[in-house]
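Database export, one record per block. Field names are fixed; values are copied verbatim from the stored entry.
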Amino acid sequence: MSSADAQSVSSQRYPVRDCANSPGRSRFFFDPSILIMVLGVFLSALVLLAVVPQSVVAAGDPVVAAAGDIACDERPGVTDQDSKSGGCQQAGTSAVLVSLHPAAVLTIGDEQYPAATYDQFMASYDKTWGKLKSITHPAPGNHEYETPLAGGYFRYFGASAGEPDKGYYSFDLAGWHLIALNGNCWAIGGCQQGSPQERWLAADLAAHPAACTLAYWHQPRFSSGPHHSDKSYQALWQDLYGAHADVVLGGHDHDYERFALQTPTGAADPKNGIREFVVGTGGKSHYPFLVTAPNSEVRNDETFGVLALTLHAHGYDWRFVPEAGSSFTDQGSGTCHGR
């Protein structure tokens, strides 16, 4: 078909209104197939928005990376015994940490072994996890207090660690309220109801009625590891539960464990319960599990790695990311209780 024939056929299918002889008018062409195509694209977009999960639609939601029990002592002339049995993998977990490109890093205590002196921090932690020090929000562990008043810890992290006589503080991120607590109760006046930290926590929760709340400290309330579940933190959990908090992170036991939603006393509560993760997998060593605690859903005592939490407006995704060469992982999603 010639070019002239093609134009003739086109003119027959889609008549052209010739306005060339009208003053101020130009030649106008209307193709109804274009309108059909535009409507199709519009309807497809509406369907996509209706069926795609929130976690995919909100692709820019921030990732928070967390773990505790991290760095061995690597000062010159010092050999940590755990390095002889597969431990001291802070460099490997640091590589995972950096690869996640997190918006914030939560270190859940025992950042530096054995006594968390400033020199120990600079020789090991600073060279690995310290790469993301500027976005790190730490919580102190028991080993930090092997140095009087956790002096090395507070000197290294500075204002990011909170006031040195407290070690607890809170901050907001993408609509979430995050609370770092100090599980070394003996050093700060206790953790029981009416203690300074517990009163501060209750007031902080009342002042920040966020849709989603996460708290973290070193010693876990619930654990199947050798440190077991610790009732010392019952009052803190009670405050968090009463304020409809969603997630609690702990370390101390050098393993990974995820619990089902539960109450401060350990009763299953799929509607209003808090989900706890124990993430003592930062690199130091591994502890074996002993007696399985109620509501424990997933456990692993052989893998170092980092917990990645993607924070959505009304929920979260979790994913345990192992160091290179390991295959264990755990992932899922949760919905915030809201207030």
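Remark 1: Helices lie at 3-13, 32-51, 54-57, 90-99, 118-123, 151-157, 196-207, 234-242.
Remark 2: The longest helix spans residues 32-51.
End of record.
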